[in-house]
Amino acid sequence: MAIIADFHIHSKFSIATSPLMIPKYISQYAEIKGVDIVGTGDFLHPKYLEILENKLIESADGIYTLKNGRGKTLFVLTTEICNIFRHNGKTKKIHTLMFSPSLKDCKKMSKSLENLGKIGSDGRPIFSMHIKEIMKRIMDINNEVFFVPAHIWTPWYSLFGSFSGFDSPEECFEDMSEYIFALETGLSSDPAMNRKVSKLDRYTLISNSDAHSPMAIGREANVFSSLKNFNSLKNSLKGKKGNDKLLYTIEFYPQEGKYFADGHRKCNFSIVPKKKEKEKKRCPRCGKTLTQGVLNRIHKLSDRSHVEDYPDVVNSKHLVPLDDIISKVVGIGKKSKTVREIYNKLVRELKSEFNILLDAKRNDIKEAADESIAEAIINVRKGKVKITPGYDGVFGKIDILR
Questions:
Q1: Nearest partner of 315 among 186, 192, 181, judged by Cα
Q2: DSSP code of 357?
C-alpha cells in the first residue's frame, strides 16, 4: 500500500498562517486529504516546539503520531529556515527545509540557534549567516538531520531564485554540498522542467504543499512504496536501493503556480518566455523591471531540449484540488456552503480527496456527487485542462475542458 507524504507545512506561529495549524487539526485534515505522513513544520519555534512535545509521541524511529491514538496521521519533524547573507559581494536569500529524527534534539537545535536569529518571532526563522554554517552547527548536534533546499526556483528566497539565488547547489552549499541529495521543486515547476538542467541529475526531486492552512495540505505531495522510519525516508531520498522508494510526486500544473511566467502584477502584464526569443526585461506598460518567472530561469540554466529519456521524467501526476474542481463545476466560490457540502459528501463516501482524484471510479464519483463533477475529475486526470499562467505573485487560472 502506497504512502502519501507532505513534508513542508507551517504552524500557526508562522506569518499569515491559519490558527488551525496545530497537530490536532493538521492530523484531521491530512486524513481528509489522504496524506499518511505530514511534516510538523516550524519545530524551531519555542512555543510550537512545546506543543509538539506535549502532543506527539514516537511511533517508529524518528516518526511520530498524536498521543493516545487520536489520529492515524504520522508526523516527521520538519521546519523551514530563511538565510539572508552576503556571498561574493552579493546578497543571497534562500529557504531550506530541515528534517530531524529526534524531538529531544529539536530542543537542542532551537537553543543553539536562538542567539543567531529571530527564533520566536516567526515559525520560519531568519538567520543572517551562510546556510552552510547553520548546517554545520545543526549536524554537530545530530548528524542524521538532513536539509532540502525549498521551492528552488521561486524568484525570491530560493536556491536558484532570479533575484537572490545561485546557479548551482555547489556554488551555494560549498563544502557542505555532499549533504544535499534532494530538492523541492515548488508549485511553479515539476520534475520534467527540472530535468532540463543536467546538473540536477543526481538529486531526488520532491514536492510539498508549503501549506499555511489545513485545506492546502497535500496540494503537492510525494508517493512512496512504503516508509518504515526516518532512516528509510532519508535513504529513499538518497536513492539507495531498498523496499522504501519514491514512486512519483503529485503536482500542481506548474503554470498554475504564481511565479511560472514573467510579468508585472500592478500592470496586469505577463509573458511566457521562449528559450530562443530575446528576453523582455521591462514592463512595456510602465517601464519597471519584470519579475522573472520560473520558466525563464530554467531556460537560462537548462542544457537539454528533450527530457523524455531521463528515467523519472514521467514520475509525476498533475492534479487540481477537489474543492477547486467542484467550485468550477457549480460556478460558485470554493469556500461556499454548497461546495463544502459536496466536498464533504464525496470524502465521506469515497475515503479521501486523493482517493477521489487518483483512483475512484467514475460511476462511484457520479453516485456520490453527479455526472458533471465526475466528468471534471476524470478530465483532470487525463490532463484536459486549459491554463492561464501565473506570474509575479498571481496564481494561474485553470479551466477544465468539458
A1: 192
A2: I
Instruction: State the Cα–Cα distance between residues 396 and 253, nearest whole angstrom.
Output: 9
Q: How are beta strands 126-127 and 74-87 bridged, if at all?
A: parallel
Percentage of the chain modeled with pLDDT above 90 = 91
- Backbone torsions φ then ψ of 146, nearest 5 degrees: -135, 160
Question: Which helix (H) or strand (E) covers residue 374, if one does?
Answer: helix 371-381
pLDDT (mean) for 40-58: 97
**Cα-Cα end-to-end distance for the chain:** 33
All cell numbers assigned to 6: 507532505
Q: In whole numbers, what is the pLDDT of the chain averaged over residues?
A: 95
**Spacing of C-alpha 314 from chain mean position:** 18
Tens of pLDDT, residues 198-237: 999 999 999 999 999 999 999 999 999 999 999 999 999 9
Decide if 9 contacts 217 (C-beta within 8 A). yes
Say whether pLDDT at 13 is over 80.
yes
Rounded to an integer, what distance in angstroms lies between the CA atom of residue 25 and that of residue 40? 11
Confidence of residue 309 (pLDDT cuts 50, 70, 90): low
Q: Which long-range contacts (CB under 8 A, 24 or more apart) does 45-50 make?
A: 45/11, 45/13, 45/79, 45/110, 45/119, 45/120, 45/122, 45/123, 45/125, 46/110, 46/114, 46/119, 46/120, 47/13, 47/120, 48/11, 48/12, 48/13, 48/123, 49/106, 49/107, 49/110
Please give the helix or strand (H or E) that residue 250 lies within, else none. Answer: strand 246-251
